[in-house]
Amino acid sequence: MSISKSILSASVMALATAGGVSAQEVNLQSAGALAFDTGTVLFVGDSKAGVVHAFDLGEALADQSDYQLGRAQTFEGRTIFNNLDVEIAALLGVSAEEVVINDMVVHKPSKQIFLSVHRGHGPAAEAVIVSVNNGALDIVDLATADHTLQSVGPVPTDATFEFGQPLNTLAITDIDYYEGELLVAGLSNEEFSSKLRRMAYPFDDEVSTSSIKIWHAVHTQYETRAPIISQIVTELDGIPTLIAVYACTPIVRIPLSELTDGAEVRGTMIGEMGFGNTPIDMVSYVNGWDGSSNVVVTNTNRSAASLNLASVASAEEMPHGEGVQPVFSVAGVDQFALPMSGTMHLDTLDDGFAVVVRRSPDDARNIQLHTLALPYFFDRADHIVEMNFADGPDPFGYGAAGPLEFN
Amino acid sequence: MTSFGSFMRQALLAACITLPLPTFAAPDAQYDATSGAVILSGLSEAEQSEAMSTEDALRLQVADLDTERGMPVKLDKLGADIVIMPRFALRAGTEYILNLDLAKTSYDLGISLPETEVTIPKLIGFAPSQAVIPANMLRLYVQFSEPMARGQLREAITLIGSDGDVVPSPFLNLETELWDPSQTRATLLLDPGRIKQGVGPNTQAGAPLTSGESYQLIVSKSMRSAAGAPLGTDVTLALRAGPSERRAIDPMNWQILTPPAGSHASLTIVFDRIMDSGAVLRLLRVQDSARNDLRGHVSSDAGGWAFAPTQAWQAGEYYLIVDPELEDVSGNTVRAPFDANPGTISATDTSPVVITAIIQ
Question: Counting Cβ atoms within 10 Å, is residue A21 exposed (0-12), middle (13-18) or buried (19+)?
Fold first, then answer.
């Protein structure tokens, strides 16, 4: 009996080996911040390996333009998935508690949604990229994608000292692509550094760093260094500008041209996001109603806020000087609060819709993948308004639009 | 063995071989720990063929998940069995269901993976461990005996003031937790916005720690290891805050104790403050007179630092190289204090500070 069992095991092993080890497990030690270039290249921040990966997904990307996203005219979004964590858990063969959704990005040309996911919470958690393909969940086969990587983490020392394994890591919190370059924000577990990493893509093994100091106080009595947690590059009055949110919540504006290698930069502090809070995502969008350009910032502990880029461009530095009263929790450049709560991840799909991973407004246990109509990131069904009742008033003619039927 | 016995054995074997498979054979799914595959047996040839060729006929998933979705699997025939190789390794201590949905019948076969033995994690240290820490402390480390699960720090760690009240939001509320690669050491950043003078959070909520006050850092008994085992008991770490440290690091204020030439004794530094216990191990180096890095063993309790060379000291000059990124426990560096006067932080000056030590 034992002989036949071990023969079976040997045969099974042979079958298992024939399947090969997927390169996804080999390449990705962890999967965090995500970004796309303007083509088909997906960037994945891998904090554990201290690298940014670039995967050219090419043909693997599937056009989603026939997938209905909702009805913007009547402020109706679409729930692509309820219990997204459970659905991913089923795919990964673990309980829902073992699923961690680290980031989400949309490939804008195809409107395909990608999620970076960990299977488990331990150091050996498997990292995978999951895509949403016309409403179906798939694990992206990274083995077939052209792959390059760039180291951004702690530089390994030549270990002349013996003190055990080096313990320092860089948690990559954001990646942004802008005109052939990547900007990588991160936070070290042993240093409080304001280094901003900037590198060309395709990677050429050169990472330039700028140290950004910020005028940090309302009184401008002090300056300090701080790591950027989230950032976006956008044009303000035609000038490519980095808008960044720091770990201690100020919003800073820096022209990209100032960020040369080794440069010493003082960013202009134009606002504060409030304490007890750090930013999750910064996403730019155009308000189709008034044509204005904006950036929306989602937060760990506050509602999302939208910054109008014209206001950002013209914002004065935070007031300073003797006699200035302390600022309130949120200050500086105008921030328009958006009715998004429980937002875990955000990106825009197209001019009319954004997509969020969020806790359902009805049941916080339900993690949804849901679309929201722009420009107000607002879903009428999330709110109790008379217009939603069958026999309620219908001043805007929503009722006449009829119920939505999704493909 | 008698010839009769031999005959009987032959007959029995022949009977076993020629007996048709009982039509009531129930399908069975077994986990094969060696390969990580699930072996599905007991199917008729027709059932095996149907299961192999029909899309979605087989679904492997964690029991009690409320979805129709299964794991991606690879199927192979092995004799009368089907070898089901899941894309991801099945988890110990987890119940799986193999759902077999065939034209004429369907089966739900349970597969139960035994628990592996897990070690109860312990909190084995924290830094800085000095009796009094600066009230503007930026960073502290908590060390566990086992790899821990991410995503619990915000819930599991509480700071209590001497009045017994919880200190509200003392730590930077990051989406990403800061761990070392083995996930045994967590870095807790006190909210820098509350430490930096004159910033909104500082002026509004004040600093998290006040000089002269005592605090308790409580790590919840529910904090789990990566393997799922909780600490079991609450762990309380006592902290006492002293005056804030708002000066840049000045190595001239360090006491450097040089060992005698010919010995392997340690070169020792006594700091004038508490350094960052993580960074201090990496960001101080010793070089010989030819400016080559020396090999040796480094240890530090953040209040002092000791370097024992692999080869004996020679009489002459050695250099202690202080990396400009080195921080004390309040985030001050050799370049500047954490909160500096405007125009005084020089990011372009990234050259290390070099201290000469003469060994006699």
Answer: exposed
